[in-house]
Amino acid sequence: MLTRLDAALIEMRRLWSPTTSGRAAEGAASAVDLSSVLVAHLVGEADGSLTVAEVADLLSVAAATASRLCDRAVAGGYLQKAPSRDDARRRTLTLTDAGLDLREHSLAFRRDYLEHLLADWTVDEIASFEGLLTRFAASVSARPPRPKPLHAPEGEHR
After folding, report:
1. Which of 60, 96, 69, 103 is nearest to 80 (CA)?
2. CA 15 to CA 113: how far, in whole Å?
3. CATH for 31-111?
4. Rounded distance, CA 135 to CA 145, Å?
5. Predicted TM-score of the model (pTM)
6. What is the DSSP letter of 36?
């Protein structure tokens, strides 16, 4: 049972990828880095303003990683960085017009795609799936993985 669940979760990567076999998916706009979509979504959800440290916390990544992701979104024109009004040592991230546009379009794309995928599901099936998936997502957030160390095969040293 867990093997099939794992395979299904891996297959779901298509939900976040605008390409199939290296080709742009039908109707896909030019590719935008997923990290820029995620950061734009987070900043938008936070009423349009976050710090890099807050992005790191929300994504459960190191501050340096969050900084790179935010820099990528700034370089793409989706965010702007400005000194914080509360603490000049901190930088506040806000959405640009392009970032607002990216957020709106990505939300619309995901909703339209979900509507397409679930078109032949009953309302009860969708409600059941939503409840279980929401519960699963909460478990993922509450219990992040603890990677096991990789062991080298006999006779090999890393």
Report:
1. 96
2. 8
3. 1.10.10.10
4. 16
5. 0.74
6. H
